[in-house]
Amino acid sequence: MTSELTVLALGALLLVVHIMLAVHFKTRQYGKDWNMGARDESLPPLNPVAGRLERARDNFAETFPVAIVALLAVTLADKSSLLTEMAAWTWLAARVIYLPLYWTGVPKVRTLVWTVSLLALLVVLGAALVG
Fold first, then answer.
1. Alpha carbon distance 55, 38 (integer Å)
2. Domains recognised in the chain with CATH numbers
3. Of 11, 17, 28, 66, whose CB has the highest number of CB atoms within 10 Å?
4. CA end-to-end span of the chain, whole Å?
5. Does the predicted model carry a pTM greater than 0.85?
6. Torsion region of 31: left, alpha or beta (phi above 0 gives left; psi -120 to 50 gives alpha)
């Protein structure tokens, strides 16, 4: 298995972590009945931590498809290289770092880390397209 596919599998695990953290803190606020119910009722806004974890999860879910395409494309096109491996690991590391930064409400650095993750994906996409 290529490093890019390993990173992709680990990225899927990171998505599960995002989902579980967000729903855990949301359930702490709204209760187990809400969690196990139909969730049709209107609810008050999330507290700051639960809200940040939900937004972090949404952000990861929005960008993960780009990672899937980039990492699969470079693997399927047989364009994996040291550069794409390093970029893949950089993307994953940045996304792992991003979660606690968003969770704790760290501004600016969080955006810088997100930018690093995006640039790393663009490197992989570029290699897949022109590599």
1. 22
2. 3-130 (1.20.120.550)
3. 11
4. 20
5. yes
6. left
